[in-house]
Specification:
There is one protein chain. This protein has no helices and 32 strands. It has 365 residues and is an all-beta fold. The strands form seven sheets. Strands 5-4-7-8-16-10-13 form a seven-stranded mixed sheet, with no helix packed on it. The chain is globular.
């Protein structure tokens, strides 16, 4: 069974850069491709600004679905567009690429033909994060706190707390984001974090749940074993409560509240279960690795950070011990390390450090 060990170092001061995040409500940032939901065009008005910790930025480029729309900020852009999701990117040399989605909704009447968006991007120096990491920011549009749960595709919880606003550095990969607040519908999405990028998710205003409505609960969603060779079979198992609709991607489709499904992919695959009800939507991903399992995997006996909470400018110590590995590395710019050691760290924001160990038998992290 794969072992997942992540050292999380929490800073007591959230970056002030997030104070002026976008005032519109984008959906999940996943792809620059437009997802048309209606053939009726809308008048799209977009105004884009950006700032760093030292003030407003002017020399940056802005693109909309990979099309350059400005090379000097602020950018004010008007166009006619089909309803759908559009990806806005802000780029400046030496800084992480800022990404945010806008959702151009279909008109609800003959006069409802205009959509306006204001984006104030946060530009973070690339040097402040590791070479294989990105930043994820989550902000609740209504400004009120809620339970924020962020999980990696392997199922490990990297964030679980009450926030109205949070910013964290994560290793590149896919993450599930779930927002819960008593008496409101739960809200969930998947986030793709890529190296050198700053992904901003603004959670839309949460809807009040109907009286007595209960959000679904995914009690179990696992794959056994979690690593196979090509041609072998693994089993997805799940158990869900209080859901009116349940589905699994990768071509599986609608499923019952409890069941099993044999899967035999030819490459490493992420399966995501999504459950819906009047009380909201929740999702959970699992990853099935496909490769050579004839040789034992490495063992991470220890990976900790001491202390696990510091103030900006202070120092913590990462400590680790690994066996049966031919290559060991730690992200966030630390790089290749020996089988046992210590490393002082002093990040400028809440940071997740991931140790990865490899051998002919596989990879664990």
């Amino acid at each position: 069974m794969k072992t997942k060990i992540i050292a999380v170092l929490v800073l007591l001061v959230i970056a002030a850069l997030l104070g002026s995040c976008t005032r519109n409500a984008p959906d999940l940032i996943m792809s620059p491709k437009i997802q048309t939901v209606d053939n009726i065009n809308q008048h799209l008005k977009l105004e884009v600004w950006a700032h760093t910790g030292s003030g407003v930025v002017q020399d940056a480029t802005v693109s909309l679905n990979e099309r350059l729309i400005g090379s000097k900020l602020p950018v004010k852009f008007d166009t006619t567009s089909s309803p759908g999701k559009y990806l806005v990117k802000i780029n400046k040399s030496g800084f992480m690429e800022y990404r945010e989605n806008i959702d151009v909704t279909p008109p609800i009447s003959a006069s409802d033909t205009s959509r306006s968006f204001f984006i104030d991007g946060v530009l973070v120096p690339i040097a402040s994060v590791g070479s294989d990491s990105g930043a994820l920011a989550i902000k609740l549009q209504d400004g009120l706190s809620a339970q924020v749960i962020v999980k990696a595709t392997e199922g490990d919880t990297v964030i679980n707390g009450t926030y109205a606003l949070i910013e964290v550095v994560l290793k590149s990969g896919n993450y599930s984001v779930d927002i819960k607040r008593p008496q409101y519908k739960s809200w969930g999405t998947l986030a793709l974090v890529e190296k050198g990028t700053y992904t901003n998710i603004v959670v839309p205003y949460l809807d009040l749940a109907p009286i007595g409505a209960v959000a679904p609960t995914i009690e179990q969603f696992v794959v056994t074993p979690d690593s196979i060779t090509v041609g072998s079979t693994a089993v997805l198992s799940w158990k869900v409560k209080e859901a009116t609709a349940i589905r699994i991607d990768q071509g599986i489709g609608t499923v019952s509240a409890q069941g099993n499904q044999n899967v035999s992919p030819s490459m490493t695959t992420i399966y995501t279960l999504t459950a819906e009800s009047a009380g909201g939507t929740v999702s959970k991903p699992v990853v099935l690795k496909v490769g050579n399992t004839s040789v034992p995997k490495p063992t991470i006996e220890q990976f900790v950070v001491t202390p696990d909470s510091i103030t900006v400018g202070s120092t913590a110590v990462l400590s680790w011990k690994v066996k049966e590995a031919t290559a060991i590395r730690i992200d966030q710019g630390i790089g290749t390390v020996s089988a046992q050691g210590n490393q002082n760290v002093s990040p400028s924001m809440t940071t997740i450090y991931t140790l990865t160990a490899e051998s002919a038998g596989g990879t664990v992290s």
